[in-house]
Description:
Blueprint: H1 6-15, H2 18-21, E1 25-29, H3 34-45, E2 53-60, H4 67-81, E3 85-89, H5 97-114, E4 119-121, H6 126-138, H7 143-146, E5 152-156, E6 159-162, H8 170-179, H9 196-207, H10 214-229, H11 234-251, H12 258-269, E7 274-279, E8 282-287, E9 290-292
Parallel strand pairs: 1-2, 1-4, 2-3, 4-6
Antiparallel strand pairs: 5-6, 7-8, 8-9
Helix pairs in contact: 3-4, 3-8, 6-9, 6-10, 11-12
Amino acid sequence: xxxxxxxxxxxxxxxxxRSLLFGxxxxxxxxxxxxxxxLVGVLSSLSQHLDLDLRVVYVHHxxxxxxxxxxxxxxxxxxxxxxxxxTLAIDPGNADEATLRERRYSALAEHARAWGNxxxxxxxxxxxxxxxxxxxxxxxxxxxxxxxxRARRSLAEGVELVRxxxxxxxxxxxxxxxxxxxxxxxxxxxxxxxxRRNAVRAALDALRPQFPGLDRAVARAAAIAGNAADDEDADxxxxxxxxxxxxxxxxxxxxxxxxxxxxxxxxxEAGGSGRYALGxxxxxxxxxxxxxxx
Length: 294
């Protein structure tokens, strides 16, 4: 998303995830950082198009002095985009990172229930997904852990955790903030390599110039592992394998990459019509879910 209008590109990318969002009442978790500020900005812009009822929520951990500045940033963003903002305070005590995360999610779930919202939205993006998968790998996790973060999962009874930005590059979110002149805070604790996720992030930043497709590749692997862990229907797995093989034989291996196969399979299942690109200049034409010869 490095074109002349990154805000339009991000909005188009979020609209492709409309099935996660349309017609919902949602609590938007905002820390004041660029990722979550972009989330608030883009969903507020699309709220009428997607029929959304939104509230912004900031969870105050009181772990560092800059937390008050972060809260001010969130309040400013709410005022800028015209959304109500609620602040929740949690007592960090001596809790470790995992416990703090659970307390934060619990507070967000309670916020959603209090306002009759059916979902909590977070700004986790493609780089976050890569970090999560690698951390799971280093812990020796099985397929479920290697599946990374899900785009949606139950957070509490009647409340879903929704992550519509998992396919989006984190830099695109920062570019969106700049394009729309939205202020954001920078968390100084992100520089501490004593935090495992930060150490993994620093190593990945060093690797990305040598592996420009790193995040897409990890996302594909996570999707495959996640589907296997969720006991996906055997017929659908067989259909994916057959379709991947057929595309590879006719158009080459590039056409049989997981993302392209999954998109084409979803279009066939939905009875879609149109031309679906496969890479390398190849494409498939569908009419009511059936491949046709041009």
